[in-house]
Amino acid sequence: MQQQGTVKPLPKYENCWLTRTDPADVARVESKTFICSEHERDVVPVARAGQKSALGNYISPADYDKAVIDRFPGCMRGRTMYVIPFSMGPVGSPLSKIGVEVTDSPYVVYSMRVMTRMGNKVLEALRKDENFVRCLHSVGRTNNPTTGWPCDPPRTIILHRPVDNEIISYGSGYGGNSLLGKKCFALRLGSVLARREGWLAEHMLIVGITDPKGRKRYIAAAFPSACGKTNLAMMTPSLPGYKVECVGDDIAWMKFDKNGVLRAINPENGFFGVAPGTSESTNPIAMASVFRNTVFTNVAETADGGVWWEGMGAAPEGIVDWKGKPWNPATGTPAAHPNSRFCTPAEQCPIIDDQWESSEGVPISAILFGGRRPEGVPLVVEARDWQHGVFMGATMRSEATAAAEHAGKVIMHDPFAMRPFFGYNFGEYLRHWLSMPQEGRNMPKIFHVNWFRKNEQGKFLWPGFGENSRVLDWVLRRCDEEPCHQETPLGRVPADGALHTDGLGEVDVKQLFSIPKDFWMNEADCIEKYFKDEVGDDLPNEMWDELKKLRKNIQQS
Ligand code: GTP
Ligand code: SPV
Ligand code: MN
After folding, report:
1. Cβ 272 vs Cβ 175: under 8 Å
2. Model pTM score
3. Which of 246, 235, 245 is nearest to 449 (CA)?
4. Which one, of 26, 46, 43, 98, lies nearest residue 539 by Cα?
5. Quick one: CA dihedral 200, 201, 205, 206, positive or negative?
6. Distance CA 430, CA 546 (A)
7. Mean per-residue pLDDT for 403-415?
8. Less crowded by CB within 10 Å, the N or C end of the chain?
9. Whose alpha carbon is nearest atom 13 of ligand 1?
């Protein structure tokens, strides 16, 4: 890769490398990501007439075949083709699944080596069980392969065919488009397998929290891309006596065991984390993880062979930006791409949980949903019951981020943080979630959190990061059924004084928890429109019931 100009060494660190992608290949491309099935409705909910649902992108079998034939013949010519047997989840765990990816990108091979378990052990497991997901990837054939980053952005396409356990990706080398074990397998195909087999494949971090009494619980949390999963998964708690340990930062596969306990594994083996915003003050654990055996993609380079990104601290002189040009801060353009990433082995994380490779998975006590909501949405709200929690997940919204191609800071619906990752009809997905409570099962409590509320001056009301431990403390006390809550139209929030705020400094707790009536009347209208326009007849009635309750509660408040 070094000879081909794909990576260059970063001599400041141990075995670290820098990659600069083609500037047209820096993020997931949701508009070119498709799921193939016989019927469109298998994939996309029925939308209001004349409306295209944003929940799932359908491609017909004929168009799928044509897309492949149009792109693949000869597309790898002159390059080395690699075959990667990999396991999502610890090799041999009953919750794990195997895939084989064929690719012409050594960057993908290396990244898959970090992000998955790969190699001979997996081949051996494959001999025992021939089931595997077929993954085909090519960076594509361009007329102008002059950079070290071949790709074919105009013809990029990412295809999934669940009935054949097949993923075919062409034209992009960027992580989520090319490391096919991650979003394509562990979430899109994973969600289909999960429904079929009665488990959950979710865009969630998994974290272990030990409280001051020494009791350890695990929490899973779904936040959309670039909304704080890695940070929460590696949090340094500010509350004394708490300890946080990391199981996973992006994806959870969860299944109820025979004792009715929801068990989660992290199907990944590494972190493909957002670089900008990572610093000694925000995420010291990530900082302690990433400066060995790491490939950095699209970060800026310092004169002494190190890396830099926005939010890391003061910028040293002589920075080269992510496009390889000397950086002039006066121009206002960022030195690192906002979606620049580190790819680091999970075992290097100093707080990796001792159960992170457990084959039965860790027991989940609570599930959090959350997003970037600058207005109106309280710091934390507990769902009244499972069905209400499913409604919270279904109605999640968040500001768009740089993780995909969306421009600007529009507030988008992103149910369960899964909008870009559903492998089947979202209405069916909701039914699957609603079917989880069963005789003998211990249902985790569900919460909605929002670290991103702003004041009139546009400043965050909540300090976030390690201070989020104060919210986790309340969540765990609620899991113990401590009566530290009060009812609101949205659900339960901390009773006055119940959220530990000592030592927090100036924080306007009242504003953080305020529930503006006008805002929520409008929110209910937006939810109704979204349900009608984008889910239509596929929406389970339970969701309409919850919306009615929300409306009534707000009106009466
Ligand atoms: P993906 O890898 O894309 O799925 O993202 P992620 O959900 O893991 O997000 P990550 O933790 O990498 O955070 C993304 C950005 O949000 C970074 O710039 C963080 O610094 C910022 N961020 C994370 N947690 C907080 C928080 O509690 N408060 C604030 N203000 N920003 C946060
Ligand atoms: C995300 O976008 O949610 C990511 C990064 O975790 S990627 O693997 O590129 O999808
Ligand atoms: Mn993610």
Report:
1. yes
2. 0.97
3. 235
4. 46
5. positive
6. 13
7. 91
8. C
9. 228
Ligand 2: distance of its center to the CA of 225 in Å? Answer: 6
Q: Which ligand is nearest to the CA of 251?
A: 3
Per-residue CA distances from 201 to 93, 135, 264, 416 (Å): 15, 18, 10, 11
pLDDT at 510 over 70: yes
pLDDT the model gives residue 143: 55
Question: What's the gap in Å between 513 CA and the centre of ligand 1?
Answer: 21
Q: Which of 227, 246, 343, 349 is catalytic?
A: 227
- Give the tens place of pLDDT for each residue, 316-353: 999 999 999 999 999 999 999 999 999 999 999 999 99
Are the C-beta atoms of residues 237 and 245 closer than 8 Å to each other? no
Average pLDDT for 139-151: 76
Distance in angstroms (rounded) separating the CA atoms of residues 423 and 253: 15
Q: What pLDDT score was predicted for residue 408?
A: 82
Return the residue whose CA atom lies nearest to atom 4 of ligand 2: 225
Cα 251 to averaged position of ligand 2 atoms, centre (Å): 10
| Bridge partners of residue 297, in order along the sequence | 19, 341
CA nearest to 420, candidates 109, 34, 105, 106: 34
> What protein residues have CB closer than 5 angstroms to ion ligand 3?
225, 250
Instruction: Give the position, in ligand 1's atom list, of the atom nearest the Cα of 273.
Output: 2
pLDDT digit string, tens, across residues 246-259? 999 999 999 999 99
Q: What are phi and psi of 224, to 5 degrees?
A: -60, 170
Mutual angle of helices 426-434 and 190-197, in 10-degree steps: 40
Nearest Cα to Cα of residue 279 among 230, 240, 238, 317: 230
For residue 517, the SS3 value is helix
The tokens describing 157, both together, are 């396409």
Mean pLDDT throughout 138-149? 75
Question: In this structure, which residue's CA is closest to atom 27 in ligand 1?
Answer: 464
Number of the ligand 2 atom closest to the C-alpha atom of 203: 3
- Among 225, 297, 298, which is best to mutate for testing ligand 2, by the most ligand atoms less than 8 A from CB? 225
227 is catalytic: yes
Question: In this predicted structure, what is the pLDDT of residue 146?
Answer: 60
Each residue's pLDDT tens digit, 50-60: 777 889 999 99
Ligand 1 site residues, Cβ closer than 6 angstroms: 223, 225-231, 249-250, 273-274, 276-277, 282, 403, 451-452, 460, 464-465, 468
Query: What is the 409 CA–ligand 3 centroid distance (Å)?
Result: 18
Read off the pLDDT of residues 353-396 as tens digits, 9 standing for 90 and up. Answer: 999 999 999 999 999 999 999 999 999 999 999 999 999 999 99
- 3-state SS, residue 48: coil
